[in-house]
Amino acid sequence: MTEVLPKGFADLEPFTQPWVELDNMERRYQARQDMSFAELQQFYDAASPRLAEILVHLDAFGRDQLPPAEGRLYRVALGLVEAAQANEFFGSSRLPRAPYPHYVAVGGKAARLD
């Protein structure tokens, strides 16, 4: 069987979906809204204690030179950002009192307050 993640991170393989398939912030943001809070909690509980180890491992490679398994691990870490928001701030997979689905614009004119 081919490993999805680098050696030493097999315990996180049950949590790779949907994160390894999502290549931008908007898709990860939407995925968080579509997941159950229980799924996000389970992922967060498994991955958050390993974040420092993940970052040390990835730091050995150039950002634009990640081998495929490390690229998937990187996307799992980015998914953890979404799970952390749900667990640490919202207490829900969706932003409380916000319509579903909703989207966030980062940067550019859409994000300006003036």
Global mean pLDDT = 89
Counting DSSP H or I runs of 4 or more residues, the number of helices is: 4
Query: Major β-sheet, in short?
Result: none
Distance between the termini: 54 Å
What topology emerges from the helices and strands here?
Elements: H1 25-34, H2 37-47, H3 51-59, H4 68-90
Please tell me about this protein's structure.
The protein has 114 residues and is an all-alpha fold. The chain has one domain (10-111). The protein is built from four helices and no strands. The mean pLDDT is 89.
Could you give a quick summary of the protein structure above?
The protein has helices spanning 25-34, 37-47, 51-59, 68-90.
What key attributes describe this structure?
46% helix; 114 residues; mainly alpha
